[in-house]
Design brief:
seven-stranded mixed sheet, 162 residues, alpha/beta, Fructose Permease, globular, single chain
């Protein structure tokens, strides 16, 4: 049992994730981590529809995920964890979740972010995000940028200076 990938992707589970990364890694469990989405039955149902037949799925809060991780209570042998926002990843890391490497590849433009800049495909970052990157790195998280499996992985610092 183990986490194959931790990823930040605001679209959470979608074709690119399920048909590329997940298929290549033989993912049999998907966990979406976001405090709001886990309370929204409609959103959970839509996410569950993206999960391939035979794979387990759950959508949990940051607190619940920290407990799952602390107890090593994963159901699958190959788990894919998706944080909706970089804040979710940071909240979990602060709670003791060991994230060795975090794939950043789904940060999209959002309204009311005056300092937001586009650094690459699916990489729209503001000053708050940059602070999150700095703190995650201080917590020992290697940050990489990779939009899809077909893109080459590269250090996030090659795209965003933080």
């Amino acid at each position: 049992m183990g986490v194959e990938m931790f990823r930040v992707d605001e679209r959470m589970l979608h074709g690119q994730v399920v048909t590329t990364f997940s298929k290549v890694m033989n993912i049999d469990e998907y966990i979406v981590v976001n405090d709001e989405v886990c309370k929204d039955e409609n959103e959970r149902t839509l996410l569950e529809l993206a999960v391939p037949a035979g794979a387990d799925f759950d959508c949990v809060s940051c607190d619940t995920f920290a407990k799952i991780d602390a107890d090593n209570d994963y159901w699958g042998n190959h788990t894919f964890v998706v944080f909706r926002y970089i804040d979710d990843a940071l909240a979990c890391a602060r709670k003791g979740v060991k994230i060795d490497k975090l794939n950043v590849g789904g940060m999209y433009s959002r309204p009311n972010r005056p300092t937001e800049k586009e650094y690459g495909p699916a990489l729209n970052v503001d000053d708050h995000d940059i602070e999150c990157f700095r703190e995650l790195e201080k917590l020992g998280v290697e940050l990489i940028y990779r939009v899809s499996f077909y893109f080459k992985e590269e250090p996030l610092k090659n795209k965003v200076k933080y």
